[in-house]
Amino acid sequence: MLLLLSPAKSLDYETPVPPALAARATRPLMVDQAAGLIDVLKHFNPAQVSSLMDLSDPLAQLNVARYGAWSRRFTDANSRPAALAFNGDVYEGLQASSFDDEDWAFAQDHVVILSGLYGVLRPLDRLQPYRLEMGTRLPVGTSKDLYGYWGDTLAAYLNQRQARAATPVIVNLASQEYAKAALRKSLKARVVECVFEDHKNGQWKIISFHAKRARGLMARWIIRQRAQSVAALEAFDSEGYAFQPALSEPDRLVFRRQLAD
């Protein structure tokens, strides 16, 4: 069973990485493809990056500098493990900084972070700072955008990771923007979606902030429980969420919790 996560726009390169963990960091698997994108991006000026990605001038300038500094050589000085570098709502729920050695080993074997630049990342894969969302309409060669650039590459990787599994399963905890790049017709695995709803102001609904955090909570729960079956996910109960069998389907698991109004 593999878990898909989205990356985050916010990054943390300030919090120190424990030396023992830095020593276990791994090299990303699709560096050649990432370098191909960098070769395109490094020719963009701040105004072009701002227009392409709808960024403020300071953010555009920051990312132009990042593209210029990006290197095929990944070191402690220019990179850190992806699960510690991303710093958005999902990763607040994941709380990777609290993992022990066994948690990291399980996560490395079961978590796949999708990325517009890197394609796929394992939690311990070294990440150099960047901004490139999967939905960006960046023309590369004959491809009009990143979905075209990555094509079936990500699905093929997931197939390869689960080639020996009798019943391959993907638990999709990624946003639609990123899942769309991996969950293609060529994917052989069963795909299970997790839906997180909160009750607020008299109705049940998906609240973006809470749902993103809940995806991280679910990934963390799976890692800490060493869960390896869809049935096991029904026991997820972090921060008040509970499985709703009457609202769920075999490949769409619904979890709800009551928020204070």
Would you spell out the secondary-structure blueprint of this structure?
Layout: E1 2-5, H1 19-24, H2 31-41, H3 46-53, H4 57-69, E2 80-81, H5 82-85, H6 89-94, H7 101-110, E3 111-115, E4 119-121, E5 126-127, H8 146-150, H9 153-161, E6 169-173, H10 176-182, E7 190-200, E8 203-205, H11 208-225, E9 242-243, E10 252-258
Parallel strand pairs: 1-3, 1-6, 6-7, 7-10
Antiparallel strand pairs: 2-5, 3-4, 7-8, 9-10
Family: Belongs to the UPF0246 family.
InterPro entries: YaaA (IPR005583)
Protein name: UPF0246 protein AACH00_11635
Plain-language structure description:
This is UPF0246 protein AACH00_11635. Belongs to the UPF0246 family. The protein has helices at residues 19-24, 31-41, 46-53, 57-69, 82-85, 89-94, 101-110, 146-150, 153-161, 176-182, 208-225; strands at 2-5, 80-81, 111-115, 119-121, 126-127, 169-173, 190-200, 203-205, 242-243, 252-258. Helices cover 37% and strands 17% of the residues. By secondary structure, it is of the alpha/beta class. The protein has one domain. The two termini are 37 Å apart. The model has no long low-confidence stretch (mean pLDDT 97).
